[in-house]
Structure formats: structure tokens, C-alpha cells
Design brief:
The termini are far apart. By secondary structure, the protein is mainly α. The radius of gyration is 33 Å and the shape is rod-shaped. The protein is 53% helix and 0% strand. The protein has 2 domains: 2-71; 81-110, no CATH class. The longest helix is centred in the middle third of the chain and has 34 residues, at 25-58.
Length: 119
């Protein structure tokens, strides 16, 4: 009977160490969830890296550079006509073609003016 108690105590001690000990089952499941989160983050970063590599390749092409300059920086080619649209609720021009409250009123063509407003 005494051997049975000793075996039972050893079994319980091993079970507690397996579950709660250093590198036990609780740590194992915690690490498993951390690994899953890191894999998800890693896949997102890989997709971002691929997108950036593609953009770097595109930035060597003149047509793409012109497209970026026109759409993101608002630049125009020399000789292009620029139309500015006015928001009727506001008293100043709208910047960008994707503004929600645009009207079709043409304010000014692209002519160079100095700061005084004279042409």
C-alpha cells in the first residue's frame, strides 16, 4: 500500500510539472498562439514587401512616374489646361478630383499669375 501512495504522489508531481512547470503544457499553448500571431504578422509584412518591390520596379518607368506626379502630387505637364472647381458651401477651391462636393463651375484656367493677382 505504501508503494501505491508513493507512485501516486510521483505521478501527481509529474503531472503538475508537465502542466504547470517551465515549458509545460500551459507554456506550450501560449507559445502556439504567439507563433500563430507572428505567422499572421509575417504574412502581412511579406505582402507589404512584395507591394513595395513592385512599386520600386514601377518607379523606373517614366509613365508610372508621371502618373504618380499627376495624381499624388497634383503636378501638371507644361501646356496642360488646369481647371479648379469651387465648393459652393465653402469659399475656396477644392484640392483634388475626388472631393465629394464638386461643382462644374470653372474658376480659372492655368495661366501664370504673380502674388498680386495680375496676369
Amino acid at each position: 500500500m505504501r508503494i501505491g501512495k508513493v507512485c501516486m504522489i510521483l505521478f501527481l508531481a509529474l503531472l503538475l510539472l508537465t502542466v504547470f512547470g517551465d515549458e509545460g503544457l500551459i507554456d506550450y499553448f501560449s507559445y502556439r498562439s504567439k507563433v500563430a500571431a507572428l505567422k499572421l504578422t509575417n504574412s502581412g509584412l511579406e505582402a507589404e514587401a512584395k507591394r513595395l518591390q513592385k512599386e520600386v520596379r514601377l518607379l523606373t518607368e517614366p509613365h508610372y512616374i508621371e502618373s504618380v506626379a499627376r495624381h499624388q502630387l497634383g503636378m501638371v505637364r507644361e501646356g496642360d489646361t488646369v481647371y479648379r472647381f469651387m465648393d459652393r458651401r465653402r469659399k475656396y477651391p477644392i484640392n483634388g478630383a475626388n472631393s465629394p462636393a464638386m461643382t462644374s463651375d470653372v474658376i480659372a484656367p492655368s495661366r501664370s499669375t504673380d502674388n498680386s493677382g495680375r496676369e
